[in-house]
């Protein structure tokens, strides 16, 4: 007997992601899923936002890297609650792993939740977490061809941050080619160029966060 | 590596459907995997064999239907298959596209043996 199913293989994860999303909305939390290759500057970019916004809004961090890349000490020195999820070597976070971390966070005090996904641009694309927005961080030394190498991730990101622009004079990186490639794959993404080292462009990242938090509450 | 989690979800879904239909054995599992889903067929086959062991899906045939990465040009509307990293429209030469195919990842059907 043949049984037609036609069901998304990740429907169980999608269902859990939807539950996470409802929980975020219930607590008025704006959740941001951050993906990048290892070394692109996820932690520095998150830390730049933490330093600028702490005291103004409640921030939380869920750290999903296989080996911790958020300096737990640095985060706690800023007085920010952070949870490390042990993915057991897995290459991505899924919605259930994420929900298991909620008990360790003071959800009622959090307005903005950074979810630092595992550093790779392939696997995290498949797993919805229940986030409000997806942010992809690319960096100048990685090369300007990355959008074409990881089209799915670039295609589904709401914000693409190009980090380490202070290195542009020293690295073979065609800025326009990168921007055209992102635009070619994703006409709606916002693109922001920053340097966590010099602070250039960080203001635009903060503005984007402020707008995103407002939108998530509508 | 994420194929392990994906294969487990696929097997869970198949077993759930089989149970609903009072099946005693799953003979065949048919899945659709898009080329851009980031899921490697060979890994799914490998994990399926291991994970299905001891379940009613043990020994089942796994049929994988692949869907090529397909783009639609935003300039001239041409639909074309994408090969490698070549996202340039063969008609107009622009590289401004929508992804219209290749992200699929679903369980199509199962074939089962039922109690009678």
Instruction: Identify the strand order in the major beta sheet of chain A.
Output: 4-3-5-2-6-7-8
Helix count of chain A equals 8
Tally of DSSP helical segments of chain B: 2
Average pLDDT of chain A, to the nearest integer? 92
CATH topology (level 3) name of one domain in chain B: hypothetical protein PF0899 fold
Oligomer: heterodimer
Content of β-strand of chain B: 35-45%
Rg from Cα of chain A:
17 Å
Proportion of residues in β-strands of chain A: 15-25%
Name the CATH architecture of one domain in chain B.
2-Layer Sandwich
Indicate the low-confidence ranges of chain B by residue numbers.
none
Domains of chain A (count): 1
Low-pLDDT ranges of chain A: none
Give the strand tally of chain A.
8
Order of helices and strands of chain B: HEHEEEEE
Helix fraction of chain B?
25-40%
CATH architecture tag of chain A: 3-Layer(aba) Sandwich
The helix/strand order of chain A is EHEHEHEHEEHHEHEH
Mean pLDDT of chain B: 93
Please give a structural write-up:
The complex is a heterodimer of chains A (218) and B (116). In chain A, 35% of the residues lie in helices and 20% in strands. By secondary structure, chain A is of the alpha/beta class. Chain A is globular and about 60 Å long. In chain B, strands 2-1-6 form a three-stranded mixed beta sheet, covered by helices on one side. In chain B, strands 4-3-5 form a three-stranded antiparallel beta sheet, with no helix packed on it. In chain B, a hairpin with a 5-residue loop joins strand 3 (70-73) and strand 4. Chains A and B meet through strand 1, helix 1, helix 6 and helix 7 of A and helix 1 and strand 6 of B. Strand 1 of chain A pairs antiparallel with strand 6 (105-114) of chain B.
């Amino acid at each position: 007997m043949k049984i037609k199913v036609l069901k998304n293989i990740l429907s169980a994860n999608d269902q859990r992601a939807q539950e996470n999303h409802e929980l975020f909305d219930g607590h008025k939390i704006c959740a941001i899923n951050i993906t990048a290759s290892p070394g692109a500057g996820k932690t520095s970019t998150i830390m730049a936002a933490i330093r600028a916004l702490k005291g103004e809004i409640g921030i939380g961090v869920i750290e999903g890297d296989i080996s911790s890349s958020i300096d737990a000490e640095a985060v706690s020195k800023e007085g920010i609650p952070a949870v490390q999820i042990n993915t057991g070597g897995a290459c991505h976070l899924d919605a259930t792993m994420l929900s298991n971390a909620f008990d360790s966070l003071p959800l009622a005090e959090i307005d903005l939740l950074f979810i630092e996904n595992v550093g790779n641009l392939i696997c995290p694309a498949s797993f919805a977490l229940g986030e409000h927005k997806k942010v992809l961080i690319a960096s100048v030394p990685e090369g300007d061809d990355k959008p074409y190498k990881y089209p799915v991730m670039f295609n589904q990101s709401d914000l693409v941050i190009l980090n380490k622009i202070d290195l542009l004079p020293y690295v073979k990186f065609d800025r326009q080619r990168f921007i055209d490639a992102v635009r070619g794959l994703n006409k709606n993404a916002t693109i922001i160029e920053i340097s966590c080292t010099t602070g250039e462009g960080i203001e635009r990242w903060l503005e984007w966060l402020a707008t995103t938090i407002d939108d998530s509450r509508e | 590596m994420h194929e392990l989690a994906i294969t487990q979800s696929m097997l869970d879904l198949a077993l759930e459907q089989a149970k609903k239909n009072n099946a005693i054995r799953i003979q065949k599992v048919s899945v659709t995997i898009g080329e851009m889903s980031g899921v490697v067929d060979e890994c799914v086959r490998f994990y399926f064999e291991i994970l299905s062991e001891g379940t009613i899906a043990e020994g089942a045939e796994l049929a994988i239907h692949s869907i090529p990465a397909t783009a639609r040009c935003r300039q001239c509307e041409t639909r074309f298959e994408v090969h490698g990293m070549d996202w340039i429209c063969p008609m107009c030469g622009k590289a401004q596209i929508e992804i219209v195919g290749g992200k699929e990842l679903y369980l199509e059907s199962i074939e089962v043996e039922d109690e009678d």
